[in-house]
Amino acid sequence: MLCFPKPPTEFPPSRATSALKKEDEFMQLHGSKAARAIYLVGEAIAAITAFLFTRLACLLMLVRRRALALLAREHTRFT
Q: What are the record keywords, sorted (predicted)?
């Protein structure tokens, strides 16, 4: 389940491999090695951020479930 909808893009959806090939071709024609390095650093930061965000969301859902279970147990104990 996605928390946030994907924003619209001007590019048609395609397979990641063909998109990466086109991107690599563009970078080889118009970009320098420094631009490619900066791009790869940005991609790495985005991947790490996405990984950490999903782990944090899973952790928060687990904490919420445990808290609700404890509240339910306490509620049944006093009734």
A: Membrane, Transmembrane, Transmembrane helix
